[in-house]
Specification:
Layout (H helix, E strand, L loop, with lengths): L4 H17 L4 H17 L3 H13 L9 H18 L10 H9 L5 H34 L1 H21 L28 H12 L1 H4 L4
Length: 214
């Protein structure tokens, strides 16, 4: 079975546009560029392959690889370059807005294009911020593990003290505890209050004292 540009060329263009429009991840964009740059060697028509190689040197796909929208624009621009070389009539060509609507299912407007770019930038910024925050938290916990343990121990002991103070019948004004013979409340060294523990922890772990900025 013989392949010809007239017979099978539209299949290549259709796949190229679909591949570009669906390149929504970095991995897919890398695959699209690798596939496209290999086509001059894989083309069924050697003459067409040489023309495509020259066109890709003049219009490198890498420049348009930031998003699937820019890749689709590149594939349309490359198609238009070939149409010009073949003297195809303008009446039979698709404009970029028509190509955009065909492969994304909605009309191209300035608002759509801006919103998509803003959403992508916001998502990337949020992901980076979350990743950085998680890294900083892990590092902070590692560097301050002993202080964190001491604060937890103070909180546990304070809870025990609160529980004991909730049972005043076990303590008396003089003579020790009649139930257990233990010391009086006045003889027990008080634990640091929760307020003092929190104040100390804020001083210990503040950016100024830790040498880190958050």
């Amino acid at each position: 079975m013989t392949s010809t540009p007239e017979k099978d060329g539209h299949i290549v263009w259709e796949y190229m546009h679909l591949s570009a429009a669906n390149a929504i991840s970095e991995r897919k964009r890398q695959f699209h560029m690798m596939w496209l740059n290999s086509q001059p060697e894989m083309f069924f028509c050697s003459k067409c392959g040489n023309h495509l190689k020259g066109n890709l040197e003049e219009l490198p796909v890498e420049i348009y690889s930031s998003t699937n929208v820019t890749l689709l624009y590149h594939s349309w621009k490359l198609h238009e370059m070939v149409n010009d070389q073949l003297n195809k009539p303008a009446s039979g060509r698709l404009t970029y807005p028509q190509v955009y609507e065909k492969y994304f299912g909605k009309p191209l407007t300035v608002i759509n294009a801006v919103e998509e770019e803003e959403e992508r930038e916001i998502e990337e910024s949020n992901n980076q911020a979350i990743e950085t925050a998680n890294h900083n938290l892990d590092q902070w916990q590692h560097e301050n593990a002993e202080q964190i343990r001491l604060i937890a121990e103070h909180r546990r002991m304070e809870a025990m003290e609160d529980a004991a103070n909730a049972k005043p019948e076990r303590y008396h004004a003089a003579g020790g505890c009649k139930s257990c013979g233990g010391p009086m409340t006045s003889d027990i060294k008080p634990l640091p209050s929760m307020a003092s523990v929190r104040s100390a922890s804020r001083q210990q772990f503040s950016p100024k004292n830790s040498g880190r900025s958050y």
